[in-house]
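User: structure tokens for this one?
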Amino acid sequence: MRGRHFRNLFIIPPILFVLFSSVSQTNSQQAGSHQASQLPDKQAFQQIEDRWSQAIAKRDQYGLELVLSPELIDISAWGDLTTRDQQIAMLFEKDAEPLSLDQRVTNVRTFGQVTVVIGSYDEQLRVNGKPVRQTGMFTHIYHNERGNWFCVNAQRTADVESAAEKARGAAKHSHAEHSITGTGRSAQ
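Assistant:
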């Protein structure tokens, strides 16, 4: 009887070693697959952000409708609220003439049918005939509807230097005139 217990003591450690090494290998494979899945998500959402930027630059209403949800609430870096309809209407305003908009995705987190996209933006626009540059960070929340991603919430935060430039110009301009990407009229 005693011999059997000692034999079990010699068999148990190798079994535990195999089990624990396979668990750690499985965890590292899962972490690797998560990082690998993050890359296609990041690339996919960068393409969506690029389509958004191109639609604004080309004043393409249909292009914006393919990216922005009808329920969109956009909060500009200066606190102005706009809806999708207001964003589209700003495409056709004379003074809302963006020269370029570059949005770079840095992080993508998906929770079922909702994805949070975080990145930076660099916007070149013309205000009263003068070129103005705004830079900062953005957070866009997308919802998947029938296989297509639509932005339901967008919020930007200006870089400190952009905010300082804005403060200097605030006495001269209303910030409702500045940007087609959300620095417009408040949603009602």
